[in-house]
Design a protein that fits this description.
Radius of gyration of chain C: 30 Å
Strand order of the largest sheet of chain C: 2-1-3-4
Structural class of chain C: mainly alpha
Number of helices of chain B: 9
Chains: A alpha/beta, B alpha/beta, C mainly alpha
Oligomer: heterotrimer
Helix content of chain C: 40-55%
Structural class of chain B: alpha/beta
CATH topology of the largest domain in chain C: Fumarate Reductase Cytochrome B subunit
Radius of gyration of chain B: 23 Å
Largest interface: A-B, 75 and 78 residues
Number of strands of chain C: 8
Helix content of chain B: 25-40%
Distance between the termini of chain C: 82 Å
Distance between the termini of chain B: 43 Å
CATH superfamily of the largest domain in chain B: HUPs
């Protein structure tokens, strides 16, 4: 059983976002972590391997060198090896170009299951999983809260807005992980030590046979123009007055000012 | 003719509020681009569902009927929608950023080799066309993006409650076009084995739009009734802080906070909750926080958008009455 | 005539007596050796324990001869004092006779003989009383902490019959010999009156039999020692000597650079050091640890006594399966298959229930070290098994990613100070003191007020100080106590690097957990700073008149308070007086002590990393302590620790008295008074 996990490294969710002089996000002092949803996907992959008593879990990522520390974190949990793709030509890419690179790498790998987080906590796009599945022409089920495997098939529980559905797909297939799919384990000391020795294969676009024109700013379908910080959360308003007055005023504000009703 | 196409996801012929919001946005976008506003309805026997869309100002409605499309599947709907888009070549396709939209949009985008901009909360109309505003880092910063000219169609998913809904005018009509797609059972690799809809009367906490929560100030299990009454009027879910759960005034599944559920409602009303860090960790993504507490020093007031310092047993029933009055009228 | 008596009556049988003695000694030695083989299974300890001659011997004098800890409880204390000194006198008596008989030295005559005789008799009576007290205690009073086993009855029987036969011998002898000093043995004399009308040759025969019975009981007692709780006679003083009184305060580090280490923490008995295994033989099941354990008292499954006894029995089971001949020195760890699991025996829930308050170690007359065992068991669970309460993972990740267990963004750490005009550490002009608010002072809304009060006090007193701001990281105490040694060392090393790079020498902190680890444990990693707890510092400022409390005249109400001793400040670091001095110096405050104060202080429940763990509602430690405070009829509870503050304030809220009873830190109380 070969499982490939698509992993993204993101800012820690508690990071305060600041913009630098050029209007880009200031990365100084930022703490990088494995995207929480990717961590859940990794945990599920390792759990499947443990349950079956055999298999390999490979972590596949696109990104700069610092992604290695996130990969080692996945190794410490129990993943076996990693593939890290980096190339300066990837600069300025979007979900389309990232998916292209990931799918190309996957097409050179063996896999029965591809797992990914359903979204990344930095951009919240929720596109990569589906795009990669399309490129590989394998079925996908997104926002999965439970996965059951049987002979060559899987039954995935997919979360809906008002319930959930059970979907059966043949393998190989791609699944994107939702929060309740798995609880990521805390790596043991043994895991941390072993993680240091697990191999990471580093690839460039040339290794994958992708030309620079297909990716990066040249190949992107979407381009970012600017960033803006939101208005700071106004200090809360304490509504004065007798209870009856204050209540009426509160409801008015909620409707007219906050527009939440 | 190029158009702005809205995917009008329907359930038994009814459309969620967000569809009308997308039509409202779509109309403005179509006008700006000099194109027509289009909508597509997919399912089995959906011809009768076009009237509300016409009334909301759609110029052309595509109806795709197919037995295989009675229920949503990724493969079925993405194939159908892609065939339509490849034929009609709209410049922009709008879907809701909900469970179906999030699943359908990227599959369609990739089939088209197109770009997708997710979770849009604002749009600027300028000389170049459309500039979309979307949140990054859970709303800690906003990004303005637009499509490049690498693809003919741009896919956009829209966040609910971000745009004004289109107004329905009785009597308005639209051109209705039947579009047939070649979707057969063998196309569908996903087999839906079972669908379970939540039947509980009250909304689930993590998905709720409005939450009314109680803390230590509630003093007893019976007193939670006044919160339930308020929740009923608002169509809200009921939540609780750790203190109330520990005192066994309410079951653990209602606990909101670091060791309970992390929620992101549009409105969170905290009654008798002091605002310990662990509780706040569960509610910071709320759009609007209201606090009612008799301690003016309570931490919750530092994060609340609106607060009333007073006795919740007096104020909450009054709120219920006021909301009842205002929402009925 | 020189007072003495004939001790040569059975001289011709001395060969038999010494043969029996030799047999007894052989059995005794074999027993001790069997124990030694078990202890030997453990890992090596450092030489420190053996080399502390002065403090070690003093502990033995205080603990064994002085019965210092034993006497903390009157009934069993006095009872055991009688047992001990009785046997000491008996030993002295026997020794005196033996020396005289074999060397001819005058060690059993004259005034010495008379006084000794009197003491022997008095203590015989006292020992009999002690036996009766023991039986009464075990059969009638039945305290919760005492369990009864066969060895208890056998031991008491040995003691009882030894003394009774001794008295019998005394009485018989007085009856059939001319003893001018019989009255120096009043009890013996009394017994002899029972035999006044009996034929003296019969008495002599009975005496001989009784003598042999007495000898056999004595020999039997010695031989029985290592096979029963009586072994504490040897292991007790040894354990007192070898004790590390800082065992809980300073946890032994793991050398994480050592790549040969395969086992972190303790999964099996042989992973413990030999001293920990010796502890199980020093434990005499007195149960004082259990009686004072906040986990036990709050209804959790942990009992320190049971844990030690479980370890003891598991050691025997494990030893039977391992090859006990193999030397465990040199770090070779033995493994054995089909060994029942140690953690299953002790219980995972039990291991996590401990708050590391230190009451167990403080109360133990044998100086058993419970807390390092808990931490070692936790280390295995966390670092090897990854099996621990899931709430702890949130705290671990928080410490890893943002340097605090609350997982608040690291760049928000100095937010508490932003409106206060607090000097930030300047390398060019370093302040004299660094004020270290800790994670609580920086991130917890209640404790921020304490940090603010502290800053205001320091400014008012004109102290040269500064804060580090966002560079400060969690001191790591919770990580270490929860068994996550890797995380602890990462944090400690980072903090030490930061502090040293800024040239920080003196640190004031308001958190006893930070205080304990910064002061006592950071030296393990090259962090040597002068660390002062804020209560000590404030007390000093008061003495130097740099802070002057105002008069009580404008107080609107009478303040009656009680001070709650923090475990990590009090028991761990001996700081009891300074917070009380501060309270005394504030006019208008009446201070009432709780019954469990100072070294007997009852834990708030948050130590040992338990601040981050869940508790069942009916098992809350803090409620019990809050009730104890409320019982004193106070309207103010004073603490000197951020965890205690949170716990006790929560306690007043849970009991719905938080409007009438305030909970404050000592710094807040002082600030209100000097402001």
């Amino acid at each position: 059983m070969k499982i490939v996990v698509l992993m993204k490294q993101t800012f820690d969710t508690e990071t305060r976002i600041n913009l630098n002089a050029e209007g880009a996000i200031d990365e100084t002092g930022v703490n990088y972590v494995v995207n929480p949803f990717c961590e859940i996907a990794t945990e599920e992959a390792i759990r499947i391997k443990e349950q079956l008593g055999e298999g390999e879990v490979v972590i596949l990522s696109v990104g700069p060198d610092r992604v290695e520390s996130a990969m080692r974190q996945c190794f410490a949990m129990g993943a076996d090896r990693g593939v890290l793709i980096n190339d300066p030509a990837l600069e300025g890419g979007d979900e389309y170009t990232t998916a292209l690179v990931l799918a190309k790498a996957l097409s050179n790998m063996e896999y029965d299951i591809v797992l990914a987080g359903y979204q990344a906590v930095d951009d919240g796009s929720a596109q990569i999983g589906a795009r990669v599945a399309e490129l590989l022409n394998i079925p996908q089920v997104t926002v999965v809260t439970k996965l059951e495997l049987s002979d060559g098939k899987a039954i995935a529980t997919r979360e809906l807005d008002d319930g959930y559905e059970l979907i059966e797909v043949p393998l190989p297939a791609l699944f994107t992980a939702q929060r309740s799919l798995a609880e990521p384990r805390y790596p043991s000391m043994k895991g941390v030590i072993q993680a240091k020795k697990k191999p990471i294969q580093r690839l460039t676009l040339a290794d994958l046979g992708i030309s620079a024109d297909e990716v990066g700013a040249k190949g992107a379908r979407v381009k970012g123009e600017s960033l803006v910080l939101p208005e700071p959360r106004q200090a809360g308003k304490i509504i004065e007055g007798e209870p009856a007055e204050a209540t009426v005023e509160l409801v008015r504000l909620l409707r007219e000012e906050a527009k939440v009703l | 003719m190029a158009g702005v196409l809205v995917f009008a996801d329907q359930k038994n012929g009814t459309y969620k509020q967000v569809i009308y919001e997308m039509l409202g946005l779509g109309k403005k976008a179509a006008e700006h681009l000099g194109q027509e506003l289009q909508a597509v309805v997919i399912g089995k026997g959906v011809d009768n569902y076009v009237a509300p869309l016409a009334e909301a100002g759609v110029d052309k409605i595509f109806v795709i009927n197919n037995d295989q499309l009675e229920s949503y599947t990724t493969d079925g709907y993405s194939k159908a929608l892609t065939e339509l888009i490849k034929q009609e070549k709209p410049s922009l396709v709008l879907l809701a950023h909900d469970a179906v939209g999030k699943d359908l949009a990227p599959a369609v985008a990739q089939k088209l080799g197109a770009g997708q901009i997710s979770d849009v909360v604002g749009v600027n109309f300028d000389e170049q066309g459309l500039l979309f505003k979307r949140p990054l880092y859970a709303g800690k910063v906003f990004s303005f993006v637009r499509f490049t000219d690498k693809a003919e169609t741009g896919i956009v998913t829209v966040r609910p409650k971000s745009f004004d809904p289109a107004q329905r005018q009785a009597g308005r009509t639209a051109q209705v076009v039947s579009f047939s797609v070649n979707v057969t059972a063998s196309d569908l690799r996903q087999i839906v084995k079972d669908v379970i809809r939540k039947t509980s009367a009250r909304v689930d906490l993590t998905e709720a739009d409005i939450i009314v929560a109680g803390g230590r100030g509630m003093k007893s299990a019976e007193n939670f009734k006044i919160l339930e009454e308020l929740a009923d009027v608002l169509g809200a879910a009921v939540g609780a802080s750790r203190a109330a759960v520990d005192e066994k005034w309410i079951e653990p599944q209602y606990q909101v906070g670091q060791s309970g559920k992390v929620v992101s409602p549009t409105l969170y009303i905290a009654c008798g909750i002091s605002g310990a860090i662990q509780h706040l960790a569960g509610i910071t993504s709320s759009k609007c926080i209201v606090a009612i507490n008799k301690d003016p020093e309570a931490e919750i007031f530092k994060v609340a958008d609106y607060g009333i310092v007073g006795d919740l047993f007096e104020i909450v029933p009054m709120l219920t009455q006021e909301f009842k009055k205002v929402l009925a009228g | 005539m020189i007072p003495t008596r004939n001790t040569e009556m059975y001289a011709q049988y001395h060969w038999l007596m010494y043969t029996l003695a030799a047999i007894a000694v052989i059995i005794l030695c074999k027993g001790i050796y069997d124990h030694y083989k078990l202890w030997r299974l453990g890992q090596p300890e450092d030489r420190e324990r053996w080399c502390q001659v002065g403090p070690g011997l003093w502990r033995v004098v205080k603990g064994t001869l002085g019965h210092f800890r034993i006497l903390r409880e009157r009934y069993p204390g006095v009872m055991h004092w009688m047992f001990f000194w009785g046997f000491a006198i008996f030993a002295l008596g026997t020794l005196s006779i033996a020396v005289r008989d074999h060397t001819g030295l005058p060690t059993f005559q004259g005034w010495y003989y008379l006084i000794l005789s009197l003491m022997l008799n008095i203590f015989s009576l006292l020992v009999i009383i002690a036996v009766i007290m023991a039986l009464w205690r075990r059969i009638v009073i039945k305290p919760d902490r005492i369990d009864n086993k066969t060895e208890d009855w056998i031991s008491l029987a040995f003691v009882f019959f030894l003394v009774v036969t001794g008295l019998l011998l005394s009485g018989l002898r007085i009856a059939f010999t001319e003893d001018n000093w019989a009255l120096w043995r009043p009890l013996g004399y009394f017994v002899s009156t029972w035999f006044s009308n009996i034929d003296s040759s019969l008495l002599k025969d009975v005496h001989q039999v009784a003598w042999w019975v007495h000898v056999c009981i004595a020999m039997g007692f010695a031989a029985y020692m290592p096979y029963s709780k009586l072994f504490h006679i040897i292991t007790g003083p040894v354990n007192q000597y070898l004790a590390k009184e800082t065992a809980a305060q300073i946890i032994e580090p793991i050398d994480l650079e050592d790549e040969s280490i395969e086992q972190f923490g303790v999964a099996e008995v042989q992973h413990f050091t030999w001293k920990h295994l010796l502890d199980t033989d020093a434990c005499i099941r007195c149960g004082r640890c259990q009686d004072n354990c906040p986990a036990y008292i709050s209804g959790k499954p942990l009992s320190p006594k049971k844990m030690i006894q479980d370890l003891k029995s598991h050691l025997r089971v494990a030893a039977a399966k391992l090859d006990t001949k193999q030397q465990a020195k040199g770090g070779e760890i033995e493994e054995a298959d089909d060994l029942p699991s140690l953690i299953d025996e002790i219980g995972e829930e039990e291991v996590w229930a401990c708050t590391t308050c230190g009451s167990c170690e403080e109360q133990c007359p044998m100086f058993v070290e419970h807390i390092p065992k808990i931490v070692e068991l936790r280390r295995n669970l966390v670092m090897m098994e990854s099996s621990f309460p899931s709430e702890a993972q949130v705290a671990f990740r928080g410490m890893e990613n943002n340097g605090n267990p609350w997982n608040q963004g690291w760049m928000t750490r100095s937010d508490w100070a932003k409106d206060l005009d607090v000097p930030e550490w300047d390398d060019e002009h370093p302040a004299e003191y660094l004020y270290w608010p800790g994670c609580s002072g920086a991130f917890d809304s209640r404790n921020r007020k304490v940090a603010v009060a502290m800053v205001k006090l320091l400014k008012k007193a004109g102290v040269s100080f500064a804060i580090l701001g966002n560079e400060e990281k969690c001191c790591g105490d919770s990580a270490r106590r929860l068994g996550n040694e890797l995380l602890y060392q990462t944090l400690a090393n980072e903090n030490i690097e930061t502090l040293n790079s800024h040239g920080v020498k003196k640190i004031i902190t308001s958190c006893p957990h930070c205080f304990n680890t910064l002061k006592n444990e950071y030296p393990q990693f090259g962090g040597n700073f002068e660390v002062i707890h804020h209560s000590v510092f404030l007390s000093k400022l008061l003495k130097e008149n740099k802070l002057k409390p105002n008069d009580a005249t404008d107080l609107t109400k009478e303040i009656v308070c009680t001070y709650h001793d923090s475990c990590y400040l009090g028991r761990y670091n001996g700081i009891y007086d300074e917070p009380r001095e501060i309270l005394r110096s504030v006019p208008g405050i009446e201070h009432r002590e709780m019954a469990r104060n100072r070294y007997k202080g009852f834990c708030c429940g948050a130590g040992g990393g338990r601040m981050w763990l869940e508790e069942a509602a009916e098992q809350r430690v803090n409620i019990r302590r809050t009730e104890e405070a409320l019982d004193r009829g106070v309207n103010l509870i004073v603490t000197a620790c951020p965890f205690c503050l949170i716990m006790l304030e929560d306690g007043t809220k849970a009991k719905d008295v938080n409007e009438q009873v305030e909970t404050k830190d000592i710094a807040e109380v002082l600030w209100e008074s000097v402001n």
